[in-house]
Design goal:
By secondary structure, the protein is mostly beta strands. It has a domain of 153 residues: Chondroitinase Ac, Chain A, domain 3 (Sandwich). 9% of the residues lie in helices and 52% in strands. The strands form 5 sheets. The chain has a 22-stranded mixed sheet that branches. It has a 15-stranded mixed sheet with strand order 1-4-7-10-12-14-17-19-21-24-26-28-31-34-38. It is globular and about 85 Å long. It starts with a helix and ends with a helix.
Length: 554
């Protein structure tokens, strides 16, 4: 025991002396270098810094080796590198953080981040030519909590991976504009645990095959957000293979793959393509649900988003394709050599908000204008218009314009819009199948109810719209469209039952380029929209809001 302790002390002292002489690889605290492996936070807290173009080559490494001890590794500067022929762990038994910046690099055959339960591992890579390379497999959130952030100029390369590996593991990867993740091979976002990937601000991610929510009990979410943000695959993308999976393609982002699935083999999947310029291109086809291995899937395209695919199929009664009709060619099927195929064994729902011009639209069309191969064994729903199953067109009439507080008698497929004369605030309602004699009205909410909302936990920003609704209609979906103006962020929708405010599921809420927030509702009393105005919008609102408050107070 005494000899091993002396050897350990000698190793620690030796490393410190060598570091001091080189002046480019430095350590503080408890760092042990065995010659083949480096342990940062070996017996207590410790740090390792590699800079000045220095290179440290080892078989393995651990940052946060000892339970309850925190380790930090920093690799910074052009040519500075920490290379591993074996495995690197960040957040092993203790918490660990690794930072790569200004042209530094890290490489390993395998990498685990957030290894043991209740351990946190964090990796940050940023700056021009800063790289993190894993030639085999990366595990982010193995049993613990793991995170990777890629900042502008960074590149992550992985030969395979699990984000949220095992039950209890929680992994996240966030890729910012100017950063790149090259993910070849198979990647599982929510393998058995919880996995999250965010691709934002014009970032680029490429991949082979990806499963979002792979095993039963897993939960995976991928969000691709903003113009120029891309997620491109040479193979398939499955949203909820056997677990729960969510794919969000928002605000001008683009996803491409060979074949796409939403809900498969008892998985529960949701995919949303929303916002002008947003697109999902699936070369060989898109399936919602499954046949031999049925799952439950919902694919929604709204607010100017588009889908391009050789074919789309809803494969069982639990499958839904929901199309927000904003014009023609919302979904384009087929390719240069074959007309598109549309198969519906589930539910195909079309809806139009109050702002769509009256007319007849073809929301699902062939790439070259050919007749589609259309097979319908399921059901159709139309909200705010009428679906013609023979012509495959969606016809909307003119929106009825009413004053706030008016009572409208509405019919199936109609649209109405209520406008408050003095403030100019407006809200629209689009109806599906409703009984004859159905009435519907909307008026501005009281300031007291809105003040109650502002005191509700989770509310972000300010109230942008608030309306009370009155109707005898129950059990039917009505599309509500709130005009809140453009230039808002962190949009939230809230329902008021007369005493309590609850948030509408964010996945149901859309915000389009014209400044309309829309979602479907089947319970009516009060609804409000909150959000954060962007700086330019905030300046304009500041001029008008005091007047609005005085009018309400009067």
């Amino acid at each position: 025991m005494l000899s091993s302790t002396r050897a350990l002390c000698a190793a620690l002292v030796c490393m410190s002396v060598v570091s001091a002489a080189r002046g480019a690889i430095t350590t503080t605290g408890s760092v042990y270098d065995s010659g083949s492996d480096v342990y940062v936070a070996h017996l207590g807290p410790g740090t390792l810094t590699i800079d000045g173009g220095s290179v440290l080559d080892r078989d393995g490494g651990e940052v946060g080796h000892a339970a309850g001890q925190a380790g930090l590794a920093t690799i910074t500067g052009t040519g500075s590198a920490w290379n591993h022929t074996g495995q690197l762990e960040v957040g092993s038994a203790g918490d660990g953080t690794a930072i790569v910046s200004s042209g530094g690099s890290v490489s390993a055959k395998w990498c685990m981040i957030g290894v043991d339960s209740n351990v946190r591992g964090a990796v940050s890579v940023g700056g021009t030519n800063s790289t993190w390379t894993v030639t085999s497999s990366i595990n982010v959130g193995r049993y613990g909590i793991g995170s990777v952030e890629l900042l502008s100029g960074a590149t992550l390369a992985t030969g395979g991976g699990h984000i949220g590996t095992y039950t209890g593991g929680n992994g996240s990867v966030k890729v910012y504009g100017g950063a790149t993740w090259n993910a070849t091979g198979w990647h599982y976002i929510g393998s058995q645990g919880t996995g999250t990937v965010e691709i934002v601000g014009g970032a680029t991610v490429t991949g082979g095959e990806t499963e979002i929510g792979y095993h039963p009990g897993s939960n995976g979410t991928v969000t691709v957000l903003g113009s120029g943000s891309t997620w491109s695959h040479t193979d398939d993308v499955s949203v909820a293979y056997r677990g729960r999976g969510t794919l969000n393609i928002l605000d001008g982002a683009a996803v491409t793959c060979d074949y796409g699935r939403v809900g498969y083999d008892n998985g529960v999947g949701e995919a949303t393509v929303s916002g002008a310029g947003s697109s999902w291109t699936s070369q060989s086809g898109l399936s919602i649900g499954g046949v031999s291995k049925p799952g439950r899937g919902t694919l929604t395209v709204r607010n100017g988003g588009v889908i391009n695919s050789k074919s789309i199929a809803t494969y069982n009664s639990q499958s839904k394709l929901i199309v927000h009709v904003t014009g023609n060619d919302v979904i384009v099927l087929g390719n240069a050599s074959q007309a598109g195929v549309m198969v519906n064994h589930g539910t195909l729902r079309f809806y139009a908000d109050a702002s769509l011009a009256a007319g007849t639209y073809t929301p699902i069309a062939d790439l070259l204008g050919r007749s589609l191969y259309w097979y319908n064994y399921g059901s159709y729903e139309a909200i705010g218009g009428v679906w013609n199953a023979s012509a495959r067109t969606f016809t909307v009439g003119a929106t009825a314009e009413l004053a706030a507080g008016d009572v409208a008698t509405v019919a199936s497929g109609e649209r109405v819009q209520f406008t408050h004369a003095s403030s100019g605030a407006s809200v629209g309602a689009s109806f599906g199948s409703v009984p004859g004699g159905t009435t519907f009205s909307a008026d501005l909410m009281s300031q007291a109810d809105l003040n109650l909302l502002l005191g509700t936990p989770g509310v972000e920003g300010r109230v942008l719209a608030g309306w009370d609704f009155a109707t005898g209609l129950t059990g039917s979906n009505v599309l509500l469209s709130f005009n809140v103006g453009t230039g808002m962020s962190d949009i939230q929708a809230w329902h008021f039952d007369g005493s309590t405010w609850t948030q509408v599921s964010p996945g149901q809420v859309g915000y389009d380029a014209a400044g309309n927030v829309n979602f479907t509702a089947s319970q009516f009393s009060g609804y409000a929209i909150t959000g954060v105005p962007e700086p330019a919008t905030l300046c304009l609102l500041a001029l008008g809001l005091p007047l609005l408050r005085r009018r309400r107070a009067g």
